[in-house]
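Hi C.,

You asked whether I'd gotten around to modeling the 215-residue construct. I have! Everything is below, sequence then structure, no commentary in between.
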Amino acid sequence: MSSLYDCTDPDRRSAGLTAAANTVRAGGLVVLPTDTVYGIGANAFDSDGVGALLAAKGRSRSMPVPVLVGSWSTVDGLVLSVSKQARALVESFWPGGLSLVLPQAPSLSWDLGDTGGTVNLRMPLHPVALDLLREVGPMAVSSANRTGNPPPETVLSARDQLGSSVSVYLDGGPTGEPVASTIVDLTAAQPRVLREGAVTVGEINEVLGIEVDIA
């Protein structure tokens, strides 16, 4: 049976974060608020948990799950190397609506789907999400909707779609107008914007001092 915690209440927030952390560590699924939409998350290093996440969404391995982190420094242990361009973008836009696709560290024992040796990383600008990430470490997180349905702006919308497949729902209130994160691919010499969202191409060009490619 699923549990829902109102994280706008300090006592319920504390209880909810404890329950969510325990669930993630045990391989279960949680729904959490982010600065874009509500997300469904699992321990990034638990392949069964990530598989359950994909199944809950009705999503195939061909659409691998992004990873959310709770600090800049976490990135160093997850990727092959952090380039000057990646560091500049992290320092300018994290936490916030920018996702970076980077070559993953070859030593990592995780299975996020068919990633081709890359990982999509972001640090969200939401206190509940950050508190959970700092407690449990990197999480595989995707929008908390069934594939083909609109991403949820409230926890109740997420629960209506995902039901008992998720053990813990953290309610941070409505997210407001959903704005997708901007995705920048840094796996080649020339940066490429795969999706423009919260951060504009112009802002990225200004930070990097070049004109990036656009997919």
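If it helps when you're writing up: DSSP finds six helices and eleven strands in the chain.

Thanks,
B.
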